[in-house]
Amino acid sequence: MQLPVADVLRQEALAQQIDYFATRRPVRMLALDTPYIRRHFEQVMAAGRLRGGEAVCEWGAGLGRFSRLLLDAGLDVTAIELSPQLSEEARAALGDRARLSIQCGDIASVLEEDTRRYDAMTGFFVLHHLPELERYFRAARRVLRAGGRMVFVEPNPFHPLFPVQIALTPGMRWRAERGIYRLTPRALRAAARAAGFSRVEIGQYGALPRAPYNLLARRGLERAIEPVVPAVLKPFQSIVAWC
């Protein structure tokens, strides 16, 4: 039986992502505890009002760089990772932790079969790698408790330097990163509302790339210029959708 065209395209997109992350291990993916990593983590915790004891589902856990911080904050974490290689490496790195479960597969497919309930969905730079938004948001909405929310951080599609980064960084591919330009506030709100979310909050943050941010953090100056950077030019955005 022939699959619908949409399903074929979705499977092709997922296969491309698996291939993309099969062997790539750039420094920004490593499970390091740096000021830059903590900046994104703190943004998610604050924007999503996450609290210790809540059950969260982390999308695209990668090597566990943020899974570790979520666990250390007292959250119960179910991590979903598409790549078999990354999920195995994350299991090896994080060990057998009582409040952690790592599942391998397509996020929407896993959630559509899930019988648990969560307080929040969360993810760090994962949405732009998904083949679409609405199906994934619908799958999330189905398993969220009343008062639950999705909270993600992503690149700001209006920031002018991301095309330069993609073009000049060895190993980065346009076809794997182009989803950045689907993540406009208008598109995010439309997908969230179509999936049944009642309120969407989007805010821009940041000012510096990873290396200078970590360097200036040694002197406590990593956020010094952020207040004067116009919102549209800030490199990152936090996205919160409430049930």
Indicate the topology.
Elements: H1 5-20, H2 35-47, E1 55-59, H3 67-72, E2 76-81, H4 84-94, E3 100-104, H5 107-113, E4 118-124, H6 134-143, E5 144-155, H7 162-168, H8 174-177, H9 185-194, E6 199-205, H10 210-217, E7 236-242
Parallel strand pairs: 1-2, 1-4, 2-3, 4-5
Antiparallel strand pairs: 5-7, 6-7
Give a verbal description of the structure.
The longest helix has 16 residues. Helix 5 runs parallel beside helix 6. This protein is α/β, with parallel strands linked by helices. Helix 4 links the parallel strand 2 and strand 3. 38% of the residues lie in helices and 20% in strands. The chain contains ten helices and seven strands. It has one domain: Rossmann fold, CATH 3.40.50. It is globular.
Radius of gyration: 17 Å
Output the CATH class name.
Answer: Alpha Beta
Provide the CATH superfamily. Vaccinia Virus protein VP39
* Major beta sheet summary: 7 strands, mixed
User: In percent, how helical is the residue content?
Assistant: 25-40%
Q: Hey, roughly how much beta strand do the residues contain?
A: 15-25%
Mean pLDDT: 88
**Which outline best applies?**
globular
Q: Could you say which structural class the secondary elements and strand pairing correspond to? A: alpha/beta
Number of domains: 1
Q: State the low-pLDDT regions, or none.
A: none
Note the gap between the termini: 37 Å
Total E-strand runs: 7
Strand order of the largest sheet: 3-2-1-4-5-7-6
Give me a quick take on this structure.
The protein is an alpha/beta fold and 243 residues long. It has ten helices and seven strands.
